[in-house]
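Hi R.,

Quick one: here's the Elongation factor P sequence you asked about.
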Amino acid sequence: MASTNDLKNGMVLKLDNDQLWSVVEFQHVKPGKGPAFVRTKLKHVLSGKVVDKTFNAGVKVETASVDKRGMQFSYKDGEDFVFMDMDTYDQIQISPAVLGDNAHYLLEGNEATVAMYEGAPLYVELPASVELVIEYTEPGVQGDRSTGGTKPARLETGHEIGVPLFITTGEKIKVDTRTGDYLGRVNS
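And here's the predicted structure, written out as tokens:
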């Protein structure tokens, strides 16, 4: 248990029938009249839904102990993804539902942060960007410029994104894992 006066960004709270909510931002408000209160923006840990919630100052809220560990993606076992704890070398299986769109940017050996609660994986955080090789894209045509349009390109993970017309098969590019956008070429 913690008081609403002790809230911090990133803290995970157990509210509404044991649902887990992460504190995105909070603000203590002391109006001229009436009691102080805490205005928060909370993000549902599993669904990603963001809500605004107000608490009276000093009210007790239940916190959840979420363990974030650095892990390395080892291999895919059927539908599941197997990650290895970098400290203990224990392996855990994570379902595609928990991984979500992050599965599009995972290669064997990639490192990620896995959030665990009571021994079960909640979500996986990848670095903001990853470097991947273009497995296939249509060849560029003379006159294609960097300010032109985009064309589809299949990454080495099998996922398809839009890249500038001048990018060719075999090039290594940087991809934003949050949006799936092309960020630039990587010089080898």
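The chain is about 0% helix and 55% strand.

Cheers,
M.
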